[in-house]
TrEMBL record:
This is AB hydrolase-1 domain-containing protein. Residues 617-650 are annotated as: Disordered. It holds the Pfam family Abhydrolase_6. It comes from Micromonospora rosaria. InterPro entries: AB_hydrolase_1, AB_hydrolase_fold. Residues 371-594 form the AB hydrolase-1 domain. GO terms for molecular function: catalytic activity.
Length: 650
């Protein structure tokens, strides 16, 4: 640290005056806004009917307004002629800021750019990016500062706000990158440069030829962004190094990735960083100048209060997750894991037992519609896999899918009694149900009557389906980022997922709390890593099972990924006999989380359970006739649109 301090003392202090900071911020931001409007005027087509920014589509999909006044104001801008006029106005305002004009003119021009940015954003949300947000922050703060020229404390507050936004934008971006393994292992830079949108063929060839240099560059980017707050060390002596490095970074990005507007957008934040990082007092041409530093103190106090509030919210969520639903029971399995399970449905002796196995990153409460629908006809057993909800993960060794299979087998063997059993699995739960069949038949014999698969995971899908492989790449990064973020206490920032409101009202708060719980995401990351490792192993291949199956594919899955339909056909053919359906008007998630989708699935699963229980155990169809191994009793996937009985809602 002494060496760093001595090095900092050798650096000169660069501290612009208040007026210099304000003037430079306005002009650089104006360049970015000028470029943005000129780009639109040269090709104003994105809001035409059928295009990404068509206002009718945006209103239905992205923007809703509680205020009728706001809706009418923003809606009035939807006219293409109005949008064009606003962009012409923005060009004029930007040119005024670039010229040597007076304070009132600059205030009017800056305010015009800030207000029109806010009006146009809803209409240009597809295609806007961080550069638009950065220029809006800089220009709106500068306009507010121009409104109070005789209140230097308020001007300094505006400049501190811009500096804080700039510093946080780099730091948050850097730490978010650090959560992803691609940036840590040096794969991110080549990965970006090879893309069609942001890539550069020549640069990609260079980083492939010199991988060590590419890793050093990637590490340098991470260091710059993660450590950007250190610009405030040494009374701002380090600030020019960080600001200059960031400026060079944006210029290189403009050349390689085509992000030209990012240069003026983020450079507009830099003068405020230099101003606020430098000495508090300075001598200007008009006399001594003293900076007001109340804003960072208020910001720090607010941060402490927010952290305390986040901790209290975390404790409340954790208490809700730990309590679970009324009637939950616990079982410690042979792995040492403590599972939470829920019994529901019919209690008639001998009634079939349907065991519900959930998907990846999904607690049993997300399957409540299935539970309640099936519970009207059968006994139902659902449970949280180890680490989900109030279940506890105790396995001492390295996790692998065999741990989950042992847990499932122990639970079913303990709870089945003399009932016939059908295991129902959604997504990854479908594959686990399939793999558990041999273990269950070893423990329960012919009481295991079948498996029901809802949009199930197939062990070959990452090799054969481009859509599934693309999703896997997203999961690789997503689970790491979310698990670490929640462990750092950022669950309070988690938005309420839309699917929560599709569930029964009595479980919504619990599911929302579970969604923001770090334990569930840690369990999901653990399972996903095991899946990624195991699916590349020969033992993961699909093996025939000695029980029948019903295989359901969500219609949206079938439409978007025909490969998945073929893989589901393969699963149907690997059972002794099978029912095969495509469930209409459902997606991978809605087939379980919505009342309508789950009702369709329940009807099909119930028909299969009745047939499987009525059939003679072994290789026989529902009518008792023997069939060859792997021969489906249905002729192929069928789109199911038949009327269904009403389902009770909470």
């Amino acid at each position: 640290m002494g060496l760093v301090a001595r090095a900092l003392r050798r650096l000169p202090t660069i501290r612009p005056t208040r007026e210099q900071t304000l003037l430079t911020t306005e002009r650089i931001a104006a360049v970015g806004q000028l470029l943005s409007s000129v780009e639109y005027l040269m090709e104003p087509r994105s809001e035409l009917p059928g295009r990404a920014n068509e206002w009718a589509t945006l209103q239905a999909t992205r923007f809703t307004f509680r205020s009728g006044v706001a809706r009418r104001i923003v809606g009035a801008v939807a006219d293409r002629r109005v949008v064009t006029g606003l962009h012409v106005l923005r060009v004029g305002a930007a040119l005024l800021l670039l010229a040597p004009t007076g304070r009132r003119t600059r205030f009017a021009a800056g305010s015009t750019l800030a207000v029109t940015s806010a009006l146009l954003y809803p209409h240009e949300s597809y295609g806007s990016d961080g550069s638009d947000q950065a220029t809006f922050v800089a220009q709106s703060a500068a306009a507010l500062a121009r409104a109070v020229p005789d209140r230097p404390a308020l001007v300094d507050t505006a400049l501190w706000y811009v500096a804080a936004q700039g510093t946080l934008s780099y730091a948050v971006s850097g730490w978010a990158k650090l959560l992803g393994p691609q940036w840590r292992n040096g794969e991110a830079l080549p990965g970006v440069l090879r893309t069609y949108t942001y890539g550069d063929r020549q640069a990609y060839r260079l980083v492939r030829r010199y991988p060590r240099t590419a890793r050093v560059l990637g590490a340098a980017v991470l260091a710059l962004e993660c450590l950007f707050p250190l610009a405030y060390l040494g009374r701002g002596r380090a600030a020019p190094l960080f600001v200059g490095s960031a400026a060079a970074f944006h210029v290189v990005n403009a050349r390689l990735m085509g992000l030209h507007r990012f240069v003026p957008a983020f450079l507009a934040l830099h003068p405020s960083v230099l101003y606020t990082a430098g000495p508090r007092r300075a001598v200007t041409a008009s006399g001594p100048e003293r900076r007001d530093d109340l804003f960072p103190l208020v910001l720090a106090a607010g941060g402490v209060a927010a952290a305390a509030g986040a901790y209290r919210a975390h404790r409340r969520r954790r208490a809700l997750v730990t309590a679970g639903r009324p009637g939950e029971q616990r079982l410690t399995t042979s792995t040492g894991n403590e599972l939470t399970f829920h019994r529901s449905g019919r209690t008639t002796p001998g009634a079939p037992l349907v065991v519900v196995e959930g998907g990846l990153a999904a607690t049993i409460e997300q399957n409540v519609w299935l539970e309640r629908g099936l519970g009207e006809r059968f006994a139902v057993l659902s449970y949280q896999r180890a680490g989900y909800g109030s279940s506890r993960y105790r396995w001492p060794g390295e996790y692998h899918l065999d741990v989950a299979l042992r847990d499932l087998t122990d639970l079913v063997a303990d709870q089945a009694g003399d009932r016939p059993v059908v295991v129902l699995g959604h997504s990854l739960g479908g594959y686990l149900a399939w793999r558990a069949v041999p273990r269950l038949t070893d423990r329960l014999g012919d009481r295991v009557r079948g498996v029901a698969l809802l949009d199930a995971t197939h062990p070959d899908e990452l090799l054969q389906s481009a859509a599934q492989y693309s999703g896997a790449l997203f999961h690789d990064r997503h689970f790491d980022e979310v698990a670490v973020s929640l462990r750092l206490g950022l669950g309070v920032l988690t938005e309420r997922p839309e699917f929560v409101d599709d569930l029964p009202a009595d479980v919504r708060d619990l599911v929302h709390a579970q969604y923001a719980d770090p334990g569930m995401w840690a369990a999901a990351r653990r399972e996903w890593r095991a899946v990624r490792t195991f699916f590349g192993h020969p033992d993961a291949r699909l093996r025939p099972i000695d029980v029948p199956a019903v295989v359901l594919t969500a219609e949206r899955t079938a439409t978007l990924d025909p490969v998945q339909v073929r893989l589901h056909d393969e699963m149907a053919q690997a059972a002794t006999w099978s029912h095969r359906h495509v469930v209409a008007d459902t997606s991978h998630d809605s087939v379980v989380v919505t009342a309508e989708g789950a009702a369709r699935a329940v009807d099909l699963v119930a028909a299969f359970v009745d047939a499987a229980v009525a059939a003679r155990p072994g290789r026989a169809t529902p009518d008792g006739e023997p069939v060859a191994a792997g021969e489906p009793t249905d002729s192929g996937p069928r789109l199911v649109t038949a009327p269904r009985p009403p389902i009770r809602t909470a």
